[in-house]
């Protein structure tokens, strides 16, 4: 049985979203699309001067994929909130898997809601983001 926002309960898991591997081209394209041209994401010399071995992915690139976990499952019209905390860098070459799990079904102003725990993990097992989505279950 496929779970929906109407039937979801605590412990249910949402379909995951996987993207990558992260390439320098991906980072350059994302910088252009987002307007985030911070050189730490696209300039190897700058990254090395900052004490890093290489550039790394924009945190918002991964956060967007966390959002996709919620909206692919419930639809954009049901999303009521999205937040995340960056916990580690996403290096070039990494593949990122974003997952979601229903942690709570509750009522807000008389309407049914779902709290979804979200995580982004790279292929070596490092969690790079954790977050939360609030979804209308009406």
Q: How much is the average pLDDT?
A: 96
**Main sheet: strand order:** 1-3-4-5-2
CATH architecture: Roll
Radius of gyration: 17 Å
Low-confidence sequence ranges: none
Beta-strand segment tally: 5
Domain MaoC-like: 21-104
Protein name: Dehydratase
GO cellular component, one term: fatty acid synthase complex
InterPro entries: Fatty_acid_synthase (IPR003965), HotDog_dom_sf (IPR029069), MaoC-like_dom (IPR002539)
Protein model, in words:
A hairpin with a 2-residue loop joins strand 3 and strand 4 (111-122). This protein has 138 residues and is α+β, with helices and mostly antiparallel strands. The longest helix is centred in the middle third of the chain and has 16 residues, at 59-74. The chain is 24% helix and 36% strand. It has a single domain, classed as Hotdog Thioesterase (Thiol Ester Dehydrase, Chain A), CATH 3.10.129. InterPro entries: Fatty_acid_synthase, HotDog_dom_sf, MaoC-like_dom.
């Amino acid at each position: 049985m496929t779970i929906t926002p109407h039937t979801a309960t605590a412990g249910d898991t949402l379909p995951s979203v996987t993207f990558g591997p992260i390439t320098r081209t991906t980072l350059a394209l994302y910088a252009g699309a987002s307007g985030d041209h911070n050189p730490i994401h696209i300039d190897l010399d700058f990254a090395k001067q900052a004490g890093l071995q290489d550039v790394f992915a924009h945190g918002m690139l991964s956060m967007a994929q966390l959002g996709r976990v919620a909206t692919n499952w419930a639809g954009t019209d049901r999303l009521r909130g999205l937040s995340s905390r960056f916990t580690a860098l996403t290096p070039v070459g990494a593949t990122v898997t974003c997952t979601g799990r229903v942690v709570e079904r509750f009522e807000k102003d008389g309407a049914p809601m779902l709290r979804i725990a979200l995580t982004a993990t790279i292929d070596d097992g490092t969690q790079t983001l954790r977050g939360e989505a609030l979804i209308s279950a009406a």
